[in-house]
Amino acid sequence: MTLSKVAGGNVLRVGIAGLGTVGVGLLKLLSGPEPIGEGRLKVIAVSARNRSLKRDVDISQFPWFDDPSEIAANPDVDVFVELMGGSDGPAKHAVELALKRGAKVVTANKALVAEHGEELAKLTEKYGGAILFEAAVGGGVPVVKAVRESFAGAKVLAISGILNGTCNYLLTEMEASGRSFADVLADAQRLGYAEADPHMDVSGTDAAHKIAILAGIAFGFAPDFKTVHIEGVTDVTLLDIRLAGKLGYRIKLLAKAEREADAVRVHVHPALVAFDHPLAGVGGSLNAVVIDAEPMGRLTFTGRGAGEGPTAAAVAADLLDLLGGRAPAMFGRPVAAFRPLSAAPRAESGRYYLRLLVKDRPGVIAAVAEKLAKHAVSIESFLQDAQHDTPDVPIVLTTQVCPRPALDAAVAEIASLDANTAAPFVVPIEDGPTRQPWRIS
Question: Could you tell me which of 144, 148, 141, 100 has the C-alpha nearest to residue 120?
Answer without folding.
Answer: 100
